[in-house]
Design goal:
Number of domains: 1
Oligomer: single chain
Number of strands: 5
Shape: globular
Strand content: 25-35%
Distance between the termini: 19 Å
């Protein structure tokens, strides 16, 4: 037997300080810390080197797992790519190392709160 429900999903997006994202990345438990971090570095090495947005997702995926850190990347041709990285020490240090440059470039930092509501 399967139980289904209709859900409406909304995302509440608010500004967040970069320092808060670093703290969350360091202090939030993850079963796979820094998952996808190497993919992020790989895509940056392949030309998607401009970071245009950094976000903290409270939940993601079909089962609403999470949290994750969202990086929106752009290459020289203007193509964009989003990468989700699980919280961990490596990604926190990566953000810390690039923080001043991203601030100078006006990169927005956002908190994405995924909200679900079951329809009755």
């Amino acid at each position: 037997m399967a139980i289904t429900s209709k859900r409406s999903i909304a995302i509440d997006v608010k500004p967040i300080s970069p320092e808060e994202i670093v703290t969350l990345a360091e202090q939030t438990w993850s079963p796979s810390p820094d998952l996808n971090f190497n993919y992020l570095l790989n895509w940056m090495a392949r030309g998607f080197s401009q970071v245009t947005k950094v976000g903290w997702l409270t939940r993601y995926g079909p089962a609403y797992g999470g949290p994750a850190i969202l990086f929106l990347l752009r290459n020289a041709e203007g193509k964009e790519l989003a990468i989700l990285v699980a919280p961990g020490e490596k990604v926190a240090e990566f953000i810390r190392q690039n923080l001043e440059e991203w601030k100078r470039n006006g990169v927005p930092f956002e908190r994405w709160e995924v909200l679900t509501q079951t329809e009755r």
